[in-house]
Amino acid sequence: MRKLFVYFLWTLLTLTILGTAGAFYAIDKGWIGYMPPIEDLQNPISRFATQIYSADGQLLGTWNYNRENRVMVDYNKIAPSLIQALVATEDVRFYDHSGVDFIALARAIVKRGILGQKSAGGGSTITQQLAKQLYSDQAHSTVERLLQKPIEWVIAVKLERTYTKDEIITMYLNYFDFLHNAVGIKTAANTYFSKEPKDLSVTESATLVGLCKNPSYFNPVRNPERSRDRRNVVLGQMVKAGYLTPEAYDSLSTQPLTLKFHVADHKEGLAQYFREYLRQYMTAKKPVRANYPSWNMAKFVTDSINWETDPLFGWCNKNKKRDGENYNIYTDGLKVYTTIDSRMQEYAEKAAYQHVVKFLQPAFDKEMQSKKNAPYSANLTAAQVEQILNRSIRQCERYRVLKESGATDDEIYRSFRTKTKMSVFTYHGEVDTIMTPLDSIKYYKSFLRTGFISMCPQNGYVKAYVGGLNYEHFAYDMVMEGRRQVGSTIKPYLYSLAMENGFTPCDEAPNVQQTYIVAGQSWTPRNGSKARYGEMVTLKWGLQQSNNWISAYLMSKLNPRAFVDLLHEYGIRNPDIHPSMALCLGPCDISVGEMASAYTAFVNHGIRAACMFVTKIEDSEGNVIAQFQPRLNEVISEESAHKMIYMLRNVVDGGTASRLRFKYNLTGQLAGKTGTTNNNSDAWFVGLTPTLVNACWVGGDDRDIHFNSMAMGQGASGALPIFALYMQQVYKNARLGYHQDEVFDVPAGFDPCPMGGGETDDLGGENDIEEIFE
Q: What is the mean pLDDT of residues 45-72?
């Protein structure tokens, strides 16, 4: 009987061993549960954020799905104290086992499973925890969790065979979700302490490792005392493991829990408008006319041209990975290296903020106090203002929601005129107030907007990009998306057409008001000044003073159709620009980015450089998968370009942009053109240096929101100062390589007037009176 019992036990043991072995074999083959393919084990973390880098190596931001804000960081860029804290707390024998710690497992079975000691610790190794995070679904019961364990053991052993210990530690830290949109140690270190992982202190490392036990329960933001206690437990484990001395523990454990917390968000940091534009640019689909509303055919035309001519436009949908899938900027962990210089970007954002927010906005608010139609022009009737506001109401999300809920128009409009509690934006922070939704519309309309771009004329590299002043509340991009009337900044294109047709800067034109008959209709342009009225003046003087009569005279001598064709050669894509005499005064809509790109032709010997945003893209393994080259096209001859630089320099040296000299003390060679549209609705300035082209626009959200006075609303006052403040900072930073002793690349002894003649213009003084076009 005793023998039979022994045989039974041996048989049972043998069957148990064989059954266990068979079960693990089945798990290994994927017959039981889920076993990831070996290629997935070799690249287990496929979902992490794409990183956008500046030209000077700074991380501008990331693109990610929801909270998958994971940015990979290498082992050698993680603080040693962080690794020590993790090993000491989560898996002290990490370097001694092969994925499963049988000592810890036995302890957990006896103490937790049999004796019920919940504080006895678990048996999972770091490798097992990584396997669980990567490949196990959330268990909903103890039984389900027990069934998952054997699968995780097999995966852990495979991970150990595939990776080194350092790689496993790195994957664990890169994958773990530390809450608050902080997935991965790089984002977590920045979110909680505003640091890189390699710069974390011992206490900071212990705090983050403390989250690994339960990130919600030990969260330092919500539960600071509990988090501090858990941090000290981690420090104690580091003492036991020999990573810290007791004396160090006594010192560190008394330190307060100090955070520099901020939630990582794509709206934070430098170049928010640029990053969002680039995201849309790279993920664009092939344009289909039916997908564009009739009022936005200009965008369809622009997108169609970009799809055919720019490899970056729609890059994700034009290129495929090795597995045949299109690239996904949210999950493929790409590195996008842009042309933006983080220092110049910072200078541009500060210049725009300093001028518009600190100077123009207070002046505008003061002027609005006396307007019954504020923020709209006093020239509008009450009925016109109401019509504009009703259109704005219909564009609101609030209107859409109420409409879908079945509310009538009367009910909706009544709700927009009913006071309610709300928080509104100010440049000093959110403010709680009570006002009607309609008043809030007018309130937000009262904020002035701006767009600024700085680019290299030789290759098109965009160095700074300011699409607005606050991305969270005013997300519309006024660099590449928005188009506004350009006023006199169009005149250099007209003058360049004249140079191409045999004119010189010294040729003369009558400075008188004339009436032109076009297609049976008369057109009489106005001018903002009557200086030298009735005289013959040079074309150089006409552009320097932004004289409308000289521009109209030139247009009468040239072909308006040829002018439109030339504008398209300059890269201006608006299909709604039609040939007419009045076109010479800039009534057409053009984007800030298009203006800057077009003006590069004057600096770059007649060759236009398209805006270039990205130099290369790398995959998650560091392989270069795309490189981009400048896109150039010849617009005008080299001689004409030199003549234009000669005339545009005179706009600064005595013309409408001369305040760059006497007010902002910019002494180097500069060229440029101011622009102002009807009623001061749009203020423009395009400024050129030998190595930079900068374009700026300032105005209201609607064209009927503007300054009454030209003193504040003209291009020289509204837009030019942003260029000046920006260039002051650029020149101050010698490391950027821009200097005021740079000269335009014009041959020595170049004669802009080879036929002689003309007059010697008086370049002294300033004429700030700008143009008004019909």
A: 78
Under a CB-based contact definition with an 8 Å cutoff, are residues 597 and 460 in contact?
yes
According to DSSP, residue 583 is labeled G
Least confident of 116-125, 250-259, 631-640, 725-734: 116-125
Alpha carbons 727 and 160: distance in angstroms, whole number:
56
Q: Which residues pair with 673 in a beta bridge?
A: 686
637 contacts: CB under 8 Å, gap ≥ 6: 500, 606
pLDDT at 598: 98
Q: Which residues pair with 52 in a beta bridge?
A: 61, 336
Contact 32, 26 (CB under 8 A): yes
| Cβ contact 203:231 at 8 Å | yes
Helices marked H in 61-108: 80-90, 102-107
The predicted-structure confidence for 210-224, as pLDDT tens digits, reads as follows 999 889 899 998 899
pLDDT at 27: 46
pLDDT at 757: 47
- The encoded tokens of residue 138 equal 């959330």
d(CA 686, CA 657): 10
Worst-scoring range by mean pLDDT, 145-154, 302-311, 423-432, 511-520?
145-154
Residues sharing a CB contact under 8 Å with residue 456, sequence separation 6 or more, in sequence order: 339, 463, 609, 691, 692, 693
Contacts of 11 (CB under 8 A, 6+ apart): none
CA distance 105 to 100: 8
What pLDDT shows up at residue 480?
Answer: 96
Residue 519: per-residue pLDDT: 76
pLDDT > 90? residue 317: yes
pTM for this prediction? 0.78
Where are the extended beta strands (E) located within 539-688?
589-590, 607-609, 614-618, 624-627, 632-634, 671-676, 682-688
pLDDT at residue number 69: 58
pLDDT computed for residue 758 by the predictor: 45
- Nearest to residue 651, comparing CAs of 756, 754, 771? 771
Q: Which of 200-204, 212-216, 449-453 has the lowest mean pLDDT?
A: 212-216
Q: For 67-252, which CATH superfamily applies?
A: Biosynthetic peptidoglycan transglycosylase-like (1.10.3810.10)
Encode pLDDT of 170-193 as tens digits.
Answer: 989 988 888 887 888 988 998 999
- The full set of domain ranges for the chain reads 10-39, 67-252, 376-445, 449-617+630-736
C-alpha to C-alpha distance for 261 and 188, rounded to whole angstroms: 10
Q: What percent of the chain shows pLDDT beyond 70?
A: 84
Classified as helix, coil or strand, 142 is helix
Residue 304 has, within 13 A of its CA and on its CB side, a CA count of 14
Give the torsion sign (CA, 714, 719, 725, 729): negative
Q: What is the largest CA-CA distance in the chain?
A: 133
Cα separation, 614 vs 53, whole angstroms: 9
Q: DSSP for 414-466?
A: HHHTS-EEEEE--TT--EEEEE-HHHHHHHHHTS-EEEEEEE-TTT-BEEEEE
φ/ψ of 614, rounded to 5, equals: -135, 140
| 709 or 586, higher pLDDT | 586
CA distance 364 to 358: 11
Task: Decide: 181 and 264 in contact? Cβ < 8 Å.
Answer: yes
User: Domain 449-617+630-736: which topology?
Assistant: Beta-lactamase (3.40.710)
DSSP-derived 3-state class of residue 687 = strand
Residue count of the chain, please give it: 774
Question: Which residues lie across from 307 on neighbouring strands?
Answer: none
Pair of tokens at residue 761: 């213009």
Per-residue burial over 576-615, b = 16 or more CB atoms within 10 Å of its CB, e = otherwise: ebeebbbbbbbbbbbbbbbbbbbbbbbbbbbbbbbbbbbb
Considering just the CA atoms, what is the radius of gyration of the chain in Å? 34
Task: Please report the beta strands in 291-419, taking only residues with DSSP state E, as ranges in sequence order.
Answer: 335-338
